[in-house]
Amino acid sequence: MSVKTPAGGRRQPTIHEVAASAGVSIGTVSRVAGESPRVAPETRARVLAAMAELGYQPNAAARAMRTNQTKTIGFLIPDMTNQVFARVAQGAETVLAPEGYMLFAFSSNRSPAREVAFLQAARQRQMDGLIVTLSDETATATIEEIGRMGVPVVVLDREVPVEADVVYSEHMQSIETVVGQLLELGHRRIGLVTASQNIRPGRDRVAGFRRALERAGLPVDDWLIRANRQSAEYGAAETHDLLTGANPPTAILAAGSDIFYGALRAVRLLGLTIPDDISFVGADDPLLGDLVYPPITVIDRDMVEVGRQAAGLLLDRLRGLDMPPRRIMLGSNVLLRRSIAAPRHR
Amino acid sequence: MSVKTPAGGRRQPTIHEVAASAGVSIGTVSRVAGESPRVAPETRARVLAAMAELGYQPNAAARAMRTNQTKTIGFLIPDMTNQVFARVAQGAETVLAPEGYMLFAFSSNRSPAREVAFLQAARQRQMDGLIVTLSDETATATIEEIGRMGVPVVVLDREVPVEADVVYSEHMQSIETVVGQLLELGHRRIGLVTASQNIRPGRDRVAGFRRALERAGLPVDDWLIRANRQSAEYGAAETHDLLTGANPPTAILAAGSDIFYGALRAVRLLGLTIPDDISFVGADDPLLGDLVYPPITVIDRDMVEVGRQAAGLLLDRLRGLDMPPRRIMLGSNVLLRRSIAAPRHR
DNA sequence: CATGATCGTGTAAACGTCAACACGCTCGTT
DNA sequence: AACGAGCGTGTTGACGTTTACACGATCATG
């Protein structure tokens, strides 16, 4: 016994067919579907039976046209395969689902063009709200498109000139803490590999890095700062370049989960031992940091909480909250592990 | 200068407003939007200008109602935070996007109830097609719901009584290969931790495991087989239990990416050294396997290709292909690394 | 120069739903 | 018995599109 899934597209039953089958008018069916109280129990039962029988599901398009809401939230992430964003989605889901909203995730693969395409699709589809992580704060087309949305938008960890609620993560202090610790141990040349300065995390990490050195009265060697892209390949390439340079760093900060992967791989391929040959700090993937040997010090943040907070902000707007944009800042933790030690030659 | 995103819901411009602004009828605007050739170039230009001016995006709900298609594909995955499924989505995307379809991912968190909810939502939203990974083949409600879809559905790596195209991954042979190799090295007690036998991968892995032992003329100790759930916690718990038992295995097969994580963690926490104290084989996360020390032998498959193949099958159906269900089987590779060795006490 | 084909455009119906309104029925009240 | 209130149900426009059809203008043809 097997169930058919006709490619030809079996027509879905409509409210009219349910009405006919139950021997009532479409208005009554609609009231039953909408859980309106104004229906006699006996009628309701008959309608419910007809619905079940026919496998009726109300047509969302028609419903959306009448009610101007779709109970759909769009979730824009730079990269599906990155656990960091997936966890955010998971957190948001836990808040939105109980309210009857469906969260649909869409991955831009860090392409501003695809971000615009997503925003337009979301607008076409009358999505009720959006949670977005942009891949480039300077992409004006994306920002204009957000302005046109007409529904509440929550922005994650970006600084964009848009009147939207934002959930920020703290990056600067944690980098400062880590760099401070490395300086304490005697490191004088520390390499930083992180995201582009076109997004807040990249900018803040570089800023925190510089501040830590300046505070210690040390000069900043720009050669040691690599802040351009967010990918394992980039992390690997820059780490390799740093470690094979004329005057290599004695510690590497791989700030970003993909970069962390790539950088760690580069260190391994060079046959270097952590922390004897090189001190190493990762970010955003506490699991990986704890699985390798020795465990790696990691800058961590609770992404599920980010998702919950973002969903909370959105939900308030969906309920009609009218007030100036709100900003939430969530903290980071430095999970100290055995991957950092005093530099060898010194 | 900042852009507004009114919570109140700025009304979106409609085709009527564009028509008025361009001084033509709505029919003409629709023809321009639909790229029909029957429009004078001068008129087209005027309409296009009006559209751009107003930031017009056609209302997908209204369009869907007329045309019965939404250019939307639903993608159901058991777990967003699992890279394996994310990669499938990525692969599918590369095939579907050029055809104008948008892929929206939804995570069921391995809950059959949420799978049903997703399927109903997809039907309500008139999605044009679905790619689904079910979390339990025995959930009849889910299967019935698939039968009602009325649009093509592609199933990933599950055996369900549904007339749908399927993309399978090969599991049995690769497990046999690995177990054979371990036997060769002298292992006689091998622990298997994998997914529930309610899904094909779990079943096939257990079957492959048994076959390898039987072929070698060895008895199968059911205590060594743990096939119940797919999560890091489960992997950790069962691995711990196996390794602290009265007669522990000398090798562990952690078949499943989350299970791999958890199992590896359990081994670490017990302070065991791979491969001296215990031989270890993982699955589905070649990256992790290569990052830890020593690198871990892993059963790997190309999930992006799975996604591409699934999307290809779906696309054919969307184009109207009418033929019996097709099945594609994709292979697995055993990436041999230094985590397996001859057992110590023997 | 009449005829018909072609072209560009406008008009109107339909898609499936919701909700305002209307209507008839049953009660309780006087 | 008459009346109004309230309840359950049916009817009827919208919502924004697409598309078949209609129509006038232009143009080539005999």
Automatic annotation (TrEMBL), chains A, B:
The keyword Glycoprotein does not apply. The keyword DNA-binding applies. This is LacI family transcriptional regulator. It comes from Kaistia dalseonensis. SUPFAM superfamilies: lambda repressor-like DNA-binding domains (SSF47413), Periplasmic binding protein-like I (SSF53822). Transmembrane segments: none annotated. It comes from the Bacteria. Residues 13-67 form the HTH lacI-type domain. The lineage of its organism: Bacteria, Pseudomonadati, Pseudomonadota, Alphaproteobacteria, Hyphomicrobiales. SMART domains: HTH_LACI. Gene3D superfamilies: 3.40.50.2300, lambda repressor-like DNA-binding domains. Keywords: DNA-binding, Transcription, Transcription regulation.
